[in-house]
Amino acid sequence: MLPQYRTVSGYGEAAFEIEKSRFIAYADRAETPEAAQRFIAAIRKKHWDATHNCAAYMCGERDETQKADDDGEPSGTAGKPILEVIKKMGLKDSVVVVTRYFGGIKLGAGGLIRAYGKSASVGLQAAGIIERRLFTPIAMAIDYGLYGKFEQELRLRGYRIMETQFGAAVTVIALEEAGQEERLEKMAADWSSGCAELMRRDAVYVDAPVNAQ
């Protein structure tokens, strides 16, 4: 699993007009080629009467799957510019479909490239860009008398408390950056004079919004 990466938050759409042609951009997260293809098929079904439904997607931890489709526009003027925007924004697991209703004025190759690139950009921004960072939940079982101290120490250091369970002991589950687990475990041992029972849980991604560039 990657320690961190950027992708879209979810579904988004945006529309605008260029030289009387209407462009509607749709974006979503797609973690597999099959998911991307389903999204593209759904938009094409929705806009079955459009002049073009051009698309691109990139999936995989190492961007293993990349595909662009001009859907009848001159080769390289639609799907590729969409894909290049996904790459330029540094996004993974993302799919974009740009629907065009021709308005009667030809844009030329350069105009099409700019129009589809702009469409992809506004569609992705409408979907929202997030950064996913990998964290390891660390469960710390402690006596009730240590609960206040642990909570204060964690918050002072900016740790996110995922959950607190109350039973025979208090179990505080906090998130530590993946690969840095020993840092929190050492502090927990110090705070409890070695009495805390520690357990690492399966790593999880935590999402945070970022400003698209």
From TrEMBL:
Residues 141-194 form the UPF0029 domain. GO terms for cellular component: cytoplasm. It holds the Pfam family DUF1949. One of its GO terms (biological process) is regulation of translational initiation. Residues 20-121 form the Impact N-terminal domain. InterPro entries: EFG_III/V, Impact, Impact_N, Impact_N_sf, Impact_YigZ-like, Ribosomal_Su5_D2-typ_SF, UPF0029_Impact_C, UPF0029_Impact_CS. Belongs to the IMPACT family. This is YigZ family protein. It comes from Heliomicrobium gestii (Heliobacterium gestii).
